[in-house]
Design a protein that fits this description.
binds uridine-diphosphate-N-acetylglucosamine, EC 5.1.3.14, 13 strands, UDP_GlcNAc_Epimerase_2_dom, alpha/beta, Rossmann fold, WecB-like, isomerase, six-stranded parallel sheet, binds uridine-5'-diphosphate, UDP-N-acetylglucosamine 2-epimerase activity
Length: 362
């Protein structure tokens, strides 16, 4: 055995979730290998996270890059099969619900290598989302399933996953937030982007909001309306840039379009925001913990705990401006106590389960 645990990461949210698990396993003295699939490759989508989150340099970058779902997943499978065969780890750890997550889990189990899934059991019940397909499949393949919230444990039980494989550990993305929160400086971030004291942050990248030009135009229109009430800073994911720009978002008064931001710069803006408008999974969770009101431009969420225990509200296009105005007038819901176990110690809990498992099986 060359490494006890091999982590596969490939996209921006994977980096944020993996960092505390890698740190905790390092503290536990566990040998680890880090494989970057290269699904995200721009410096602003990848390198900057490694630097800011103190992630180790990847042992390999597979350089798979972009493509259609079939092409990207197929390329990931082939490259990961070779890598896992060569390295023969005792356990492969995968994060979240992206194509790199599914490909790594599938390549590993077909080679007889057990898989641990961090962020198991989330369900939007919308199979039109590529992430929902990925999550459901990965949860059927995994040997160890780490859940962030009790309803995720319930979903796994209903899908027939054996209870002894499932561990409610809290949320490693929130470990990362709490590790870096003292670096989140809203005043400097606001000044750096010429924003007034009161502003909103927007991120949009879900295919349902940005892929189809009509959907992108509808999103751009509603954001331009919202920007009449509050300046909006919009660090744009590369996926939506062309469509949202073509829809005129760049020229809307009060809209500040930016390239994707590094983690600390982004979270600094979020921490100081009057409201966040998003379709991101992670951002719904981060605003919950920071107590920043979040309006999610989606019809479903796989993270309902951010609504019941946090500051999140799902809004359709027509509901966005009224909801925003209500928040600005002080009528928004105050944060409640925050989800249980989102306390900055999820990485340690995951490491304890993994090291225990390795002692029995490694
Ligand atoms: C992926 C995940 C999504 C996650 C998101 C996080 C899948 C199916 N989707 O979506 O669940 O929420 O990451 O950010 O895995 N691109 C660049 N530079 C990059 C990366 C991508 O320009 O570094 C552009 C390319 O044009 C590419 C497009 O973005 O075709 C989409 O990238 P891809 O990795 O396929 O999916 P995301 O939309 O990033
Ligand atoms: N993020 C960032 N800079 C940005 C946008 C996002 O650092 O410009 C961080 C933020 O912490 C977020 C994470 O990247 O939670 C993952 O974001 P994304 O929305 O891409 O993925 P999702 O959570 O929707 O899968």
């Amino acid at each position: 055995m060359n490494a006890c645990v091999l982590h596969v990461v490939g996209t921006r949210p994977n980096f944020v979730k993996a960092a505390p698990v890698i740190t905790a396993l390092t503290t536990a003295g566990c040998a680890q290998t880090l494989v970057h699939t290269g699904q995200h490759y721009d410096a602003r989508m990848s390198d900057i996270f490694f630097r800011q989150l103190g992630l180790p340099e990847p042992d390999t970058d597979l350089g798979v890059g972009s493509g259609s779902h079939a092409r990207q997943t197929a390329d990931l499978l082939v490259a990961l099969e070779q890598e896992l065969t060569a390295r023969a780890p005792a356990l492969v750890t995968v994060y979240g619900d992206v194509n790199s997550t599914l490909a790594a889990a599938l390549a590993a189990v077909k080679l007889g290598i057990p898989v641990a899934h961090v962020e198991a059991g989330l369900r939007s019940f919308d199979m039109a989302m590529p992430e929902e397909v990925n999550r459901r499949l990965v949860d059927q393949l995994a040997e160890l399933l780490f859940a962030t919230s009790p309803e995720a444990v319930g979903h796994l039980a209903r899908e027939g996953v054996a209870a002894d494989r499932v561990h409610l550990v809290g949320n490693p993305m929130i470990d990362t937030l709490l590790t870096h929160v003292e670096q989140f400086d809203p005043t400097s971030a606001r000044a750096a982007h010429g924003l007034p004291e009161r502003y909103g942050v927007v991120t949009l990248h879900r295919p349902a909001n940005v892929d189809d030009p009509e959907a992108a135009a509808a999103a751009a229109r509603v954001l331009a309306d919202a920007a009449r009430h509050l300046d909006l800073v919009v660090p744009l994911h590369p996926r939506g840039r062309a469509a949202l720009s073509a829809a005129g978002l760049a020229n809307a008064p009060g809209v500040h379009l930016l390239d994707p931001l590094g983690y600390v710069e982004f979270m600094s803006l979020v921490r100081g925001a009057a409201v966040v408008i998003t379709d991101s999974g992670g951002v719904q969770e981060e605003t919950t913990v920071l107590g920043v009101p979040c309006l999610t431009l989606r019809t479903t969420t796989e993270r309902p705990v951010t609504v019941t225990h946090g500051t999140n509200r799902l809004v359709r296009h027509g509901e966005l401006v009224p909801a925003l105005r209500k928040l600005l007038e002080g009528g928004g819901a105050a944060p409640v106590e925050g989800p249980p176990l989102w306390d900055g110690r999820a990485g340690g809990r995951i490491a304890r389960v993994i090291t225990g498992w390795l002692e029995r099986h490694g």
